[in-house]
Structure formats: structure tokens, C-alpha cells
Amino acid sequence: MNGPAGTEGYAEAAEQLAVQYEEVTFAQVHRELLPLLPGAPSAVLDIGAGTGRDAAALAALGHRVVAAEPTAELRRIGRRIHAGSAIRWVDDALPEVAVLRASGERFDLILLTAVWMHLDDRERRSAMGALAGLLAPAGRVLLSLRHGPVPPGRRMFDVSADETVALGRRHGLDLLTRAARADLHGRPGVSWSLLGFERTATRLP
To answer: Which three-class secondary structure state does DSSP give residue 142?
Structure first.
């Protein structure tokens, strides 16, 4: 397998995916979670950043943004498309996010857009602990979870919002917001769950 788990098919389709990602806006994709964004400039991590659409929007709001994307083709496109944005790109991925964990950085906000369902059960358990360890006190995780048919050549799992909420709770992440919506691209059978968590201060490592 080329690249970390869950990246199958993305390198080959990078240019096509870039068009798809950039034709909708950050505000459209995350409408239900926007009230949970930090009000002041903060340290933000976008995991599975793709072409950097969300990272660029967050940087434009004044946040200090790290975009973690394991697919080199998507990183190159993102650097080109958002060349004027103050984004720091890194080659890193769940479940281990080894580069970021080794750096010792902590983030006020971690964003995962259409990432979580690429991880199998074991990887999700490991990844939730890694996310909790990357959060600053009272830091938040905003996560969108895809449901429905798996595109050809991709690796995705049927992951429920209930499972994700329960796993977050076991790692000291309290649910703040839960919403559901249809697919913005109108793909048949595809729907989304949107979850917002906050790190429980009393359970910080």
C-alpha cells in the first residue's frame, strides 16, 4: 500500500479531487460547527487537509494553522492553490500522527474533515487517544463523518456517530454539538454526521 491507511486512490485522483474540494466553501462544509471555532487567534491543526481549503479559511481568520496531509500530490496542489495563505504543511497522518506528537505541539482546535471513516476499528481507538494528546486544555475537535457507498478504489468503513461519541468520551472528549446533513455534492446515498468535542480539563494527561 502506498502511504498510510486510508489514502488509497487519492494520489491518482488528486487533480479531480482538488476541483471537488474547492467547489464548496469552508463555511458551507462546516456550517453546523462554525459556532465552536475559537474567537481569538489560536493554534489549529487540520488533519487530512487535502488541498488546504479549510486550512486557508482558518488562516484567513487569523489562526496559526498546521495542515497535515499524507498524500504528496494533494500537498503540492494545496501549496499551489493557497500559496498566499499562512499554512504550515506537514507530511503526517492518523492514527499515529507521529511527526506532530514528537514535536510536542498542542492545539486549541483540531479539524478532521472526511477523515475518520478511513480508519479501521483498531486505528480509530489509537487515533482518538492521539488526538486527545495533541489538544491544549479545553481544546476542541471538529469532525465530519461520511456515511454511504464507498467510492471504487477507496478504503472506508461504516462508522457511526454514536460509536465516535462514545470513543471520544473514553478519551476525555465531551460532545458539544452533533448534527446531520445531506451531501453537498448530491451524491446518491451519501450523508454526513458533524461532531464537535471539547477536552475535559479534569482529565488532561
So the answer is: strand
Distances (CA, A) of 100 to 94, 95, 109, 169: 10, 12, 14, 23
Asked if the 43-203 domain carries CATH number 3.40.50.2000, the reply is no
The C-alpha atoms of residue 22 and residue 14 are separated, in whole angstroms, by 12
CA–CA separation, 60 and 55 (whole Å): 9
pTM above 0.85, yes or no: yes
Q: List Cα–Cα distances, 204 to 43, 130, 195, in angstroms.
A: 18, 13, 20
> Which stretches within the chain are classed as H helix?
14-22, 26-29, 53-60, 72-81, 98-103, 121-134, 161-170
Domain residue spans of the chain? 43-203
β-pairing, 107-113 vs 43-47, is parallel
Looking at residue 89, the DSSP 8-state letter turns out to be E
pLDDT in tens, 168-186: 999 999 999 999 999 888 8
